[in-house]
């Protein structure tokens, strides 16, 4: 019962905040309620550690002979790190909110807590049925929140397109289920047919925007630091967790080398854009993309712990960077712990990233190392950037304390998870590429201020629609759509026109002729 | 007390009375309460067995003889009555919010009563006549007083009327088939007649043209009511044929015919839904696809499983269409037409109605978390067990539905820059839409809540089912 208790600890305060906002808009303790909820949820997640693995099952769907799985949630050595990282992020969002806003509007905190509750459900989903249900809940809530936050028709349309790409990811999981049924079994994370694993991988890649490379959500809206960060990172974590559930053997296919190259190319492109982004919020979609691509590469090399490491680093290191909205020199330096989390050095969060059961395709190695280097260098650049952030030292002492505590919690969790609590803790891993990446990163950070082409690009260059070849693909699909649409118009006009009944009867006669042949 | 009198006679009487009630709210309340009461009675009082309430013994007899024919409702029909009148109550209560209570309650209640009569009549072939009578009542329902019926309404009537002689002819031939089962030519002729009759009744591709045509000329709410009621009962009627005639049930061509016609409806309806630029027409095509799903489900092996899948989708279909039709009607009262050009950006002023449209559409497409997902999942799995090709074509149809839903959503949310958000729906409309949408989510997350209603339905077809 610990799983539902934790989820309720996040969701109930969120609902209380919404109700209080409606009934008592002048209520003075919104922030304390949010903090209480976040803190209790976070503590309960640490309590999980003493009781792993945890299982929570909802009543089975009926009739039982039609439904083979009940919605089930499991916390184990791979899902717990995701859950604790989401819980820590939620608590940090509330703690660091003292810097960003007045404390009278609780809606962003309610949104963050609610997303975290659903996110914890997503990362603990134990079968594809449960996962698609939670994905759908996340996608609908994100759609609603995003639509409320944009003002232009073009932005609204982009949000719907983003929603469509996520729905396609859900569809691929369901198609993997169909393939399993055809093979005589039901899709289950524990016993997955060989060809289904690849579909799940592509489904996760599609939702994350890596396969094919695209931004799976609209460009950053006015939801910036707080709830925007929760939305971006929770959504990514909920997709990445699928990669940890794919059995290592089920992604081995003749297509795997091609997928390696595609994923590595996506990683290079997104990490390059991330490195040159004008600020961390403008580059945030590419932060998610580059780490998601690296996680996909780990999944292809059969390393579930590696996927978890990248996913948790995405949330924790990303959270520390994006929530650090006030300038303070020591805090900025401390945020570099996040760079350590990405290094894949021994005893760090991502130590097991390149230590999978299958080899990395040799052509992908240089690309992946380049991508990892640029991701870390970009992180360091954004963390240390003087920028236009306001100075923390000029704020009241309670603001300084809570903000530092919020960022510190994320960084502390990064360090702790390097050593305890999950399947990828206390690992030496593949240290040779890690060392190479470390040296290259040092070189790149040194070179960045000295080489003009490494300087930030303008914000409007970061287009929401991704690479031009993807545009070409979409234009082709659009032409196909219009062509089929014109054909459907012709048939519709024939059937609904004056001679429609006659056309129908003619078709029916043909149909009966055909069926009578089949009957013989 | 007599079951046919209770579930056919009383609603017909109330329908006739409500014709003289001019008040929208009173009409909606009367229709809703009547249907709800009949549903509750069917839920708690068994047919043809005594119920002791203290010293009082209550028994509802099963049969009533009228004009030499029997109308019989048995215990096995009880669950169907609960569902039919329960969903009808939802439609009638919502009719005030849609502003069509004065038309929907009298004619709608009459249609439901006639459709129940079609299930109850013996010999069961007479059901075709009751279905035709229900279709005739559909004309004043679709056409406001003082107006001429549109082309869609006339074509609807033509198609439903053409169905009747085919089915009656088939019935006449079936008697011959039973006496000489080896006569292949006669069997083929009877099967063809029967197939044609059902093709007209169920609006099988390409005989569905009246549905999108109606969508452009009638109130979405009354149209939705017909799209729910007629196919639901026609499927039950068709199951009756399969249950009664062994040769039909065991025919080798049955499964392939059902699969081909079902998949044609799903693919054609799905693709057409993806290209429409009128929200009402999209709903019409989705109704075509839903019927296609039901026909496809009938082809699943074993038949007992097929029945379970068919019945599982019955309530989600009724609820989804009710929410969708209500939402469209609310929008139509504020805009010129349901064409994309007219409804562009209305999400900002009617967010609940737009949510209703989009969620009902997504539910029909089998989006997880919504009522349509469990039945679509079981259908997909059932077909995949037989053929990957069928499962693939089903995927194409579903993709068409999803494309239609996403296109509609994109148009509905594309408001002019800096348009403020508001709640244009009335309180009654908000409550009705809220309840409906909540129902879609509950059925999507916990489909087992309706299991008690569904588990006895296969008993209506003892040969075909369990």
Could you characterize what this model shows?
- The complex is a heterodimer of chains A (520) and B (466).
- Chain A is mainly alpha-helical.
- Chain A folds into 2 domains: 2-466, no CATH class; 478-519, no CATH class.
- In chain A, 67% of the residues lie in helices and 2% in strands.
- In chain A, the strands form 2 sheets. A two-stranded antiparallel ribbon of chain A has the order 1-2. A two-stranded parallel ribbon of chain A has the order 3-4.
- Chain A is globular.
- The termini of chain A are far apart.
- Chain B is mainly alpha-helical.
- Chain B has 2 domains: 1-122, no CATH class; 123-460, no CATH class.
- Chain B has helices at 3-18, 24-44, 78-98, 101-120, 127-142, 151-179, 184-201, 210-217, 220-244, 246-249, 252-275, 279-298, 303-312, 314-332, 340-343, 351-364, 373-384, 388-413, 427-445, 451-454; strands at 51-53, 56-58, 63-66, 69-72, 121-122.
- In chain B, α11 packs antiparallel against α12.
- The chains are: A mainly alpha (520), B mainly alpha (466).
- At the A-B interface, α5, α6, α17 and α18 of A face α7, α11, α13, α17 and α18 of B.
């Amino acid at each position: 019962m610990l799983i539902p208790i934790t989820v309720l600890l996040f969701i109930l305060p969120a609902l209380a905040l919404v109700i209080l906002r409606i009934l008592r808009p002048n209520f003075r303790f919104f922030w304390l309620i949010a903090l209480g909820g976040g803190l209790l949820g976070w503590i309960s997640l640490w309590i999980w550690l003493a009781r792993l693995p945890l299982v929570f099952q909802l009543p089975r769907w009926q009739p039982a002979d039609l439904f083979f799985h009940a919605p089930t949630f499991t916390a184990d050595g791979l899902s717990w790190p995701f859950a604790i990282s989401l819980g820590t992020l939620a608590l940090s969002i509330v703690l660091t909110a003292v810097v960003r806003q007045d404390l009278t509007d609780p809606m962003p905190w309610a949104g963050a807590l609610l997303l975290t509750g659903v996110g914890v459900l997503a990362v603990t989903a134990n079968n594809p049925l449960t996962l698609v249900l939670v994905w759908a809940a996340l996608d609908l809530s994100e759609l609603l929140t995003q639509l409320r936050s944009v003002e232009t028709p073009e932005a609204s349309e982009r949000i719907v397109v983003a929603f469509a790409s996520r729905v396609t990811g859900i569809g691929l999981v369901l198609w993997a289920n169909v393939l399993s049924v055809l093979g005589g079994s039901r899709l289950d994370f524990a016993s997955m047919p060989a060809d289904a694993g690849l579909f799940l991988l592509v489904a996760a890649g599609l939702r994350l925007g890596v396969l094919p490379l695209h931004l799976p959500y609209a460009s950053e809206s006015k939801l910036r630091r707080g709830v925007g960060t929760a939305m971006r990172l929770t959504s990514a974590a909920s997709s990445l967790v699928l990669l940890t559930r794919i059995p290592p053997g089920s992604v081995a296919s003749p297509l795997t080398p091609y997928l390696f190259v595609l994923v590595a190319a996506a990683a290079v492109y997104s990490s390059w854009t991330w490195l040159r982004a004008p600020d961390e919020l403008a580059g945030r979609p590419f932060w998610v993309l580059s780490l998601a691509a690296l996680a996909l590469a780990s999944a292809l090399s059969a390393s579930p712990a590696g996927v978890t490491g990248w996913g948790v680093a995405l949330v924790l290191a990303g959270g520390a960077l994006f929530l650090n909205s006030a300038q303070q020199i020591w805090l900025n330096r401390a945020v570099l712990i996040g760079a350590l989390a990405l290094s894949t050095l021994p005893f760090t969060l991502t130590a097991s990233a390149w230590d999978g059961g299958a080899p990395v395709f040799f052509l992908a190695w240089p690309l992946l190392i380049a991508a990892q280097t640029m991701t870390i260098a970009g992180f360091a650049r954004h963390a240390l950037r003087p920028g236009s952030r306001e100075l923390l030292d000029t704020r009241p002492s309670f603001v300084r304390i809570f903000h530092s505590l919020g960022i510190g919690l994320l960084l502390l969790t990064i360090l702790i998870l390097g050593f305890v609590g999950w399947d990828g803790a206390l690992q030496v891993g593949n240290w040779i590429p890690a060392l190479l990446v470390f040296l290259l990163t040092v070189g790149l950070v040194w070179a960045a201020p000295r080489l003009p082409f490494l300087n930030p690009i303008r914000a409007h260059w970061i287009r929401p629609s991704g690479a031009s070849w993807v545009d070409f693909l979409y234009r082709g699909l659009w032409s196909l759509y219009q062509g089929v649409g014109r054909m459907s118009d012709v048939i519709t006009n024939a059937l609904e026109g004056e001679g429609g009944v006659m056309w129908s009867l003619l078709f029916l006669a043909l149909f009966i002729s055909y069926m009578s042949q089949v009957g013989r | 007390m007599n079951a046919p009198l209770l579930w056919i006679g009383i609603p017909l009487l109330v329908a006739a009375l409500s014709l003289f009630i001019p008040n929208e709210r009173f009409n909606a309340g009367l229709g809703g309460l009547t249907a709800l009461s009949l549903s509750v009675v069917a839920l708690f009082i068994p047919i043809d067995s005594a119920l002791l309430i203290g010293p009082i013994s209550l028994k509802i007899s099963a049969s009533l003889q009228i004009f030499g024919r029997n109308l019989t409702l048995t215990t096995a029909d009880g669950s169907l009555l609960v569902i039919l009148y329960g969903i009808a109550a939802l439609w009638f209560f919502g009719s005030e919010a849609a502003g069509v209570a004065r038309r929907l309650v009298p004619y709608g209640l009459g249609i439901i009563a006639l459709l129940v009569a079609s299930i109850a009549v013996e010999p069961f072939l007479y059901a075709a006549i009751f279905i035709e009578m229900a279709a005739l009542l559909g004309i004043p329902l679709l056409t406001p007083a003082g107006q001429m019926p549109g082309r869609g309404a006339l074509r609807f009537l033509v198609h439903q009327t053409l169905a009747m002689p085919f089915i009656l002819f088939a019935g006449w031939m079936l008697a011959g088939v039973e006496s000489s089962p080896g006569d292949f030519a006669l069997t083929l002729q009877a099967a063809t007649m029967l197939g044609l009759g059902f093709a007209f009744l169920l609006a099988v591709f390409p005989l569905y043209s009246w549905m999108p045509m109606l969508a452009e000329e009638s109130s979405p709410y009354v149209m939705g009511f017909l799209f729910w009621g007629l196919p639901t009962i026609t499927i039950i009627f068709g199951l009756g044929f399969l249950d009664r005639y062994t040769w039909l049930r065991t025919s080798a061509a049955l499964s392939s015919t059902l699969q081909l016609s079902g998949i044609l409806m799903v693919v054609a309806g799905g693709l057409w839904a993806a290209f429409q630029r009128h929200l009402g027409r999209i709903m019409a095509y989705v109704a075509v696809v839903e019927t296609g799903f039901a026909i496809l489900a009938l082809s699943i092996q074993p038949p007992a499983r097929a029945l379970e899948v068919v019945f599982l989708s019955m309530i989600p279909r009724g609820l989804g269409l009710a929410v969708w039709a209500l939402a469209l009607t609310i929008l139509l009262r504020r805009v010129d037409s349901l064409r994309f050009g007219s409804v562009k950006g209305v999400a900002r002023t009617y967010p609940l109605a737009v949510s209703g449209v989009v969620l009902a559409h997504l539910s029909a497409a089998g989006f997880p978390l919504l009522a349509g997902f469990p039945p679509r999942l079981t259908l997909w799995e059932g077909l995949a067990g037989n053929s990957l090709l069928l499962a693939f074509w089903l995927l194409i149809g579903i993709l068409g539905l999803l494309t239609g839903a996403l296109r509609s959503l994109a148009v509905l949310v594309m408001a002019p820059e800096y348009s403020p958000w508001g709640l244009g729906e009335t309180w009654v409309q908000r409550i009705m839409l809220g309840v409906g949408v909540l129902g879609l989510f509950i059925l999507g997350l916990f489909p087992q809540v309706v299991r008690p209603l569904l588990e006895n339905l296969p008993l209506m077809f003892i040969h075909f089912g369990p």
